[in-house]
Amino acid sequence: MIFRTAVEHAKKHPGLIPQFFFICLGMGGATLYLLRLAKGPHVIWNKTNNPEPWNKLDPTYQYKFVAIEQDYKSLKKEGPDF
């Protein structure tokens, strides 16, 4: 029903076609980004099999999105050794 109305409006006003295209493109990109975030190592979907997944990460794991010229393997570990 909504799709049919959008098509009818696009036939009457062709200038709306790019607007519909970019709105759909933005919504699709936002959906893909949310799916990418939901599959990250910090998200827990099943607490029974792996209640603390962050304990399995390496101390040199890069938590930042962008690190320009940063070598995380040579950083000093600030916590105690277990």
Would you tell me the overall average pLDDT?
81
Helix content class:
40-55%
Shape: elongated
Q: How far apart, in Å, are the first and last alpha carbons?
A: 61 Å
Task: Indicate the radius of gyration in whole angstroms.
Answer: 23 Å
Low-pLDDT stretches: none
How many distinct beta strands? 0
Instruction: Give me the number of helical elements.
Output: 2
Please summarize what this structure is.
This protein is mainly α and 82 residues long. 41% of the residues lie in helices and 0% in strands. The chain has helices at 2-12, 16-38.
Give an overview in words.
With 82 residues, the chain is mainly α. It contains 2 helices and no strands. The chain starts with a helix and ends in a 44-residue tail after the last helix. The mean pLDDT is 81.
Task: From the structure above, extract its key features.
82 residues; 2 helices; elongated
Reconstruct the topology from this structure.
Elements: H1 2-12, H2 16-38
